[in-house]
Automatic annotation (TrEMBL), chain A:
<dbReference type="InterPro" id="IPR036010">
    <property type="entry name" value="2Fe-2S_ferredoxin-like_sf"/>
</dbReference>
<dbReference type="InterPro" id="IPR001041">
    <property type="entry name" value="2Fe-2S_ferredoxin-type"/>
</dbReference>
<keyword id="KW-0001">2Fe-2S</keyword>
<dbReference type="Pfam" id="PF00111">
    <property type="entry name" value="Fer2"/>
</dbReference>
<comment type="pathway">
    <text>Alkaloid degradation; nicotine degradation.</text>
</comment>
<dbReference type="InterPro" id="IPR012675">
    <property type="entry name" value="Beta-grasp_dom_sf"/>
</dbReference>
<keyword id="KW-0479">Metal-binding</keyword>
<keyword id="KW-0408">Iron</keyword>
<dbReference type="Pfam" id="PF01799">
    <property type="entry name" value="Fer2_2"/>
</dbReference>
TrEMBL record, chain B:
<dbReference type="Pfam" id="PF03450">
    <property type="entry name" value="CO_deh_flav_C"/>
</dbReference>
<dbReference type="Pfam" id="PF00941">
    <property type="entry name" value="FAD_binding_5"/>
</dbReference>
<dbReference type="InterPro" id="IPR016166">
    <property type="entry name" value="FAD-bd_PCMH"/>
</dbReference>
<dbReference type="InterPro" id="IPR016169">
    <property type="entry name" value="FAD-bd_PCMH_sub2"/>
</dbReference>
<keyword id="KW-0274">FAD</keyword>
<dbReference type="InterPro" id="IPR036318">
    <property type="entry name" value="FAD-bd_PCMH-like_sf"/>
</dbReference>
<dbReference type="GO" id="GO:0016491">
    <property type="term" value="F:oxidoreductase activity"/>
</dbReference>
<keyword id="KW-0285">Flavoprotein</keyword>
<feature type="domain" description="FAD-binding PCMH-type">
    <location>
        <begin position="1"/>
        <end position="178"/>
    </location>
</feature>
């Protein structure tokens, strides 16, 4: 067992973990953060994407011990006091999900993309999300939602109300 | 699946890492970014007794200028490499090819050295290192550092020349000077899939045409291979699309491409010819 201290969505946890415990299993089984789903066993699908020290990683390909001393942000840490994050709101409003299984990963990958590129083209959004698979093939609306969220995140809310 | 149990060491220096690896014995594996090894552990295709995790060996993330070459630390991530100003200026082929590796989340964790030590002939970076005449630096606790050329590093299918107690610490990449154009051409069916065939090439043009051409192939055998016949036949030729197409006809000579679900070996040989012509043309235009 190895002692780890990890900050997840703003709360610090200390736990003894086996070295082989995957970060995604730690989040779901130990912390109850089931907002992060497990989609595949091959690092392909991106459903389990979270931010580790602010950058996107597939949490099925990171060990819990590797998150020791670091910050993890899951989809559960995005909304503040019941208010949806602009990306969550845009996914809702643009119907960017059908079954919703890929949605947490899509949103976290999109958040990482917008951190580096606040105004991506559709092509850049597609490239930024290339590590995330949607089994309902709802990519058109996902791209639309990311574009909408990017616009909202660039424009302060007040200004939007005036211009809309 | 859940990986089989293993002992875990998290060194912070190369010396500690080498000592931990030596202590752990022959059934230990070095964990770099984990983007190839972690899936193998989860599928239980690999079940080492011990993992030596290089994640906290910060010294191995450095990319430095050595005058006529760059030294890229083994733990430099793909994300870091493709944006690094030194790499973009002096080894643009690495920056371009790295941008085609997997996807952003994988590139945040995956490392230059890990991708090379994995020695997957379908990986993009082995062929790139081979085309650039890169030199590999390995360190062990007992014997210190040794260096070997790329052609000696890739021994067989997913097998490198690293000894069980050795860690790849970095790769020395000679700078390409003025006059070089580069390109990495990759053919795959879906986003983030492995290359069915890939072509890494660098072309130096002079007043009288092609002065030097380097062409290395991804997934055309158990190791990355240089298309030496293409390189030879281009020397001194005019840098025209016709000349590139003609030379590219020899791209599959001396190769032994695999046949699998994604294509027969004949199809791969065909792809190698077509993609080499495209890669040469793009490189000479760049």
């Amino acid at each position: 067992m190895t002692r780890v201290r990890v900050e997840v969505d703003g709360v610090t946890y200390e736990d003894d973990v086996e070295p082989r415990l995957l970060l995604v299993h730690y989040l779901r089984d130990r912390l109850g953060k089931v907002g992060t789903p497990i989609g595949c066993d091959t690092t392909n699908c991106g459903a389990c994407t979270v931010l580790l020290d602010g950058v996107s990683v597939k949490s099925c390909s990171v060990l819990a011990v590797q998150a020791d001393g670091r910050q993890v942000t899951t989809v559960e840490g995005l909304g503040i006091d019941g208010t949806l994050h602009p990306l969550q709101r845009a996914f809702h409003e643009e119907h960017a999900l059908q079954c919703g299984f890929c949605t947490p990963g899509m949103i976290m990958a999109a958040l990482d993309l917008l951190r580096e590129n606040a105004a991506p083209s559709d092509e850049e959004i597609r490239e930024g999300l290339e590590g995330n698979l949607c089994r309902c093939t709802g990519y058109q609306n996902i791209v639309r939602a990311v574009r909408r969220a990017a616009r909202e995140m660039r424009t302060p809310a007040q200004e939007r109300e005036v211009t809309s | 699946m859940i990986p089989a149990a293993f002992d875990y060491a998290r060194p912070t220096t190369v010396e500690e890492a080498c000592a931990a690896l030596a202590d752990a014995g022959e059934d230990a594996k070095v964990l770099a970014g984990g983007q190839s090894l972690m899936p193998l552990l989860r599928l239980r295709l690999a079940y080492p007794d011990a993992l030596i995790d290089l994640d906290r060996v910060e010294a191995l993330r450095e990319i430095r200028d050595e005058g006529d070459a760059l030294f890229i630390g083994a733990m430099a991530t793909h994300h870091q490499v493709m944006r690094d100003p030194l790499v973009r200026e002096h080894a643009p082929l690495i920056a371009k090819a790295t941008a085609t590796v997997a996807d952003p989340a994988v590139r945040h964790r995956g490392t230059f050295g890990g991708a090379l030590a994995h020695a997957d002939p379908a990986g993009d970076l082995p062929a790139v290192a081979l085309a650039l005449d890169a030199e590999f630096a390995a360190v062990s606790a007992e014997r210190g550092e040794r260096r070997m050329p790329a052609a000696e590093f890739f021994v067989d299918w997913m097998t490198s020349a690293l000894e069980p107690d050795e860690i790849l610490v970095g790769v020395r990449v000679p700078k390409l000077g003025a006059g070089w154009g580069v390109h990495y051409e990759k053919f795959h069916r879906t986003a983030q899939a492995w290359a069915i065939v890939g072509v890494a090439c660098a072309v130096r043009r002079g007043q009288d045409g092609v002065e030097e051409a380097r062409v290395a192939l991804t997934n055309m055998g158990p190791t990355p291979v240089r298309a030496t016949e293409v390189e030879r036949s281009l020397q001194g030729r005019a840098a025209s699309e016709d000349a590139f197409k003609e030379a590219a006809q020899r791209a599959a000579e001396g190769t032994s491409p695999p046949g699998d679900l994604h294509g027969s070996s004949e199809y791969r040989a065909h792809l190698a010819r077509v993609l080499t012509a495209r890669a040469l043309t793009a490189a000479a235009a760049g």
